[in-house]
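== Item description ==
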Amino acid sequence: MKRIPFLLFLSLMTPIADAQIHGGPRKGILIIQGAGDIGRRLPRVWDDFIRLAGGPDANFVFIPTADNAVDLHNLPREEFPFDRLKHVTVLHTRCRPEADDEAFVAPLKNAAGVWFGSGRQFRLVDSYLHTRFQREVRAVLDRGGVVGGTSAGGVILASHLVHSAILDQKILIAKGYEEGFGYLTNLVIDQRIEVRKGEGDMAPIIASHPELLGLGLEESSAILVRGNILEVIGPGRVAITDGKDHGGTRYYFLSAGDRFDFKTRSKVAARPGR
């Protein structure tokens, strides 16, 4: 893939939403996990996802599309708590017309919980961006449901993307793959930051586009977002890049149990009982 100059890429990252708005959906809950086997790393993620969606009897949808070769008859069990749920529909397509089809998206109309599996962001962009599927997932949140994802399946939920190039994940911004689904507004999220030593990757993006806020998740971390409030599920950390200097770095870390207000761009008191 031809490398387009970095500054040109930054110029392409124009704000997708109102520059004065930050945070999650007005209704519903988002859960985004860094990477890896959730059941082993962060069992609380599945507990919260199932409980907040209404319990194991609710209707759930799993989307494995970010993965490379999706085998609908042999899905990885670590990607989703299939054994704990009674009603699960798996939705997958790489055909955009199908993603716009009323019959394909029908299971989302009754879903209380939707989860995107891990893989590569570009596959989700190619399949679902600006389709009926994307709108119906938004409708799950509008009904007060829960939408989440692991790794690429989580970061796609934000308004902006990084490390989404098809051939080279080291490229920070990939032309044509800058836009996510936008359920988190004016936010860009990276994952596995401790693996790629990418804690500082967001700094030039936020410096050029101060209306954005950058989040970087370690593999063993997750965030739970209700409206403007983010809560960190650990033991991993979340890096916040807000365009300010923080003791010689352009980011700082939130740890397990920490809460962050997108509206004020600041930490808030921990939730009682946590």
In short: Residues 33 and 150 are 5 Å apart (CA to CA). The chain has ten helices and 14 strands. The first helix runs from residue 6 to 12.
